[in-house]
């Protein structure tokens, strides 16, 4: 089952349509609905056409669960200020100025699975920051676009329904690279540059989990873009 959280009050006519699609209001809350995966797109289309903004959530692997090689996610990391509270062993955090910081134990775990990544010493003793990783060959695709805001450097911040889709080429790339930067979104035919976000492949995530690396929250997994069969 998939959950849609709607940010505005849902009018009665729309509720009736959602019920007709088999939707179930969670605990009689007209703003949170559950749908089976096969009818989710119909419900999304209705809400988008009627001007609602919403968030779609899927069940995804939890911390500690093994994921497949083809899975990809971005990681919710702790901040540099949390380092002193971390247990000994591999440590991975965001620095105060936004860089990815790792100690040697962490690099030893990641390096065999992300051979193109490069690390250089940081100003923090015994920590290195990521200086290079490959870029994904294609944009991350989204199905809805509610709002967009221009940012410096010809980049954009986008508001969408929370679903982000990995293309097959990106899937092949993350298996090869282990980690890679996502730098673009695509909505329909339009592309939008975004601030770079590091994406982690399934094998690297499993290695981090096996070595008990601590995170701020669950990894956020990308969905795979459906492959259309030619007839």
Q: If strands are numbered along the chain, what order do they take across the biggest sheet?
A: 11-15-16-5-17
Report the count of strand segments: 18
Low-confidence stretches: none
User: What is the 3D shape?
Assistant: elongated
Largest sheet: number of strands, sense, barrel closure = 5 strands, mixed
- Give the % helix: 10-25%
Question: How large a portion of the residues is in β-strands, by DSSP E?
Answer: 35-45%
Mean pLDDT level = 92
Distance between the termini: 30 Å
Q: Pairing-aware structural class of the strands and helices?
A: alpha+beta
The DSSP helix count reads: 5
C-alpha Rg, in Å? 20 Å
SSE topology string: EHEEHEEEEEHEEEEEEHEEHEE
Structure description:
The longest helix has 10 residues, at 40-49. It is built from five helices and 18 strands. Helix content is 19%, strand content 35%. The strands form five sheets. Strands 11-15-16-5-17 form a five-stranded mixed sheet. Strands 6-7-8-10-9 form a five-stranded mixed sheet. It has a four-stranded antiparallel sheet with strand order 2-3-1-4. With 231 residues, it is of the alpha+beta class. It has helices at 12-20, 40-49, 104-110, 168-177, 202-210, and strands at residues 2-6, 24-26, 29-35, 54-57, 72-74, 78-79, 92-94, 100-103, 118-121, 127-132, 140-142, 147-151, 155-159, 165-166, 179-187, 190-201, 220-221, 223-224.
Output the keywords:
19% helix; single chain; alpha+beta; elongated; 231 residues; 5 helices; five-stranded mixed β-sheet
Sequence-ordered SSE layout with sheet pairings:
Layout: E1 2-6, H1 12-20, E2 24-26, E3 29-35, H2 40-49, E4 54-57, E5 72-74, E6 78-79, E7 92-94, E8 100-103, H3 104-110, E9 118-121, E10 127-132, E11 140-142, E12 147-151, E13 155-159, E14 165-166, H4 168-177, E15 179-187, E16 190-201, H5 202-210, E17 220-221, E18 223-224
Parallel strand pairs: 6-7, 11-15, 14-18
Antiparallel strand pairs: 1-3, 1-4, 2-3, 5-16, 5-17, 7-8, 8-10, 9-10, 12-13, 15-16
């Amino acid at each position: 089952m998939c959950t849609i959280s709607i940010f505005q009050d849902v009018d009665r006519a729309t509720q009736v349509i959602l019920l007709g699609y088999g939707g179930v209001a969670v605990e009689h809350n007209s703003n949170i609905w559950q749908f089976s995966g096969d009818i989710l797109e119909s419900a999304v289309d209705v809400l988008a056409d009627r001007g609602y903004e919403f968030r779609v959530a899927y069940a995804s692997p939890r911390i500690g669960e093994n994921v497949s090689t083809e899975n990809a996610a971005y990681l919710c990391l702790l901040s540099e200020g949390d380092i002193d509270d971390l247990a000994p062993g591999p440590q991975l955090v965001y620095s105060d100025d936004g860089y990815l910081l790792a100690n040697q134990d962490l690099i030893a775990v990641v390096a065999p699975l992300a051979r193109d990544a490069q690390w250089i010493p940081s100003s923090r003793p015994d920590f290195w920051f990521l200086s290079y990783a490959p870029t994904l060959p294609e944009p991350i695709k989204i199905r809805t676009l509610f709002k967009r805001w221009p940012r410096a450097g010809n980049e954009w911040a986008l508001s969408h329904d929370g679903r982000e889709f990995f293309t097959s080429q990106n899937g092949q790339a993350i298996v090869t690279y282990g980690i890679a930067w996502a730098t673009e979104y695509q909505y329909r035919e339009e592309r939008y540059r975004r601030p770079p976000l590091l994406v982690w492949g399934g094998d690297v995530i499993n290695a981090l989990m096996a070595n008990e690396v601590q995170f701020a929250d669950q990894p956020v997994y990308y969905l795979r873009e459906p492959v259309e069969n030619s007839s």
